[in-house]
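Troubleshooting: if your tokenizer reports a length mismatch, compare your output against this known-good record of 334 residues.
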Amino acid sequence: MLIDAHAHLLPRDYPADAPACFPRMEPVDGDTARTLLFGEMRFRARDVFFDAERRIAAQDASGVHAEVLSPMPPLLRYDLPAADGLSLARHVNEFTASLCSAFPDRLLGFGMVPMQDPDAATAELKTLREQGLYGVEITSNILGSSIGDAKFLPFFQEAERLGLPVFVHAMPAPSERLPKSAMGTYTVGVEGAYAAASLVTGGTAAACPDLRISFSHAAGGFPLMIPRHQYFWGGSWNEEEPVPERAVAPDDGPSPLEYARRFYYDSLVFDRRALRFLLELLGHDRLLIGSDFPAMPREEPAGRTLRSMDLPDTVLEDVTWHNAFRWLGIEPTR
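Known-good structure output:
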């Protein structure tokens, strides 16, 4: 079995009387695709983004048994007025619930919430659960604020209370330190690292020990940086016994690596050597298959690189499907 824990959807349409700040989906002449128009964004969306039958056909073609479907990240526009953001989120969530109801064992939907209003976002989590959605997607920063900021802690506490998993999608943020051409590569990696690190250093990971949270693209550079934090915390190399007199910033709580091993990470890192590092540092019970489909093409068949690594069956089964159900908090479906 293989579960793709990082795949996206787009609604086919938006209400005719929607606020002017809403996206639009316009038909493409002579094609089943539609064009997403959202601010400056122009994106040609193939029908697999919004057609349940086409999604199942695409799954079958690449050897995928089920997908965790989250809104395509540009829809998570936290710069909208809070009321409009809530209205947009509800429309997208209703579409997601409807799309997934066509094949409920194979399309597992995640919703979105208006994180620009943390109180409204927190209140909306219960509605997602009532709609039959499995979790919630947020981006790696909220209008420039780290997700580990204290103002978002009640949101994560409510997600933990409801048993609702969170998917953090790295969202490129403009920076003068890198050119625009780096937005989809290095900037995504930096964003993922900031997001995960902020939960560890800001206290959210300590406050929410049972929160089930995953990060796109293995949280970017975070896994490579966490051993440095481990040294600062414990003063030792290679996760050996702490040497308190050498520690730069000791505390008596769990180690940074312990916190990092509470998170889940999708394995979309494009190289088997990177995968081996993640498996060794974080553990095979922390990784999920992810593809970013259909915004990016899947490997053919899905998980091809992982399957080429001669991993034990128990490890391979954890990454390809067991971990996804653990993260979702549900029993496996077949």
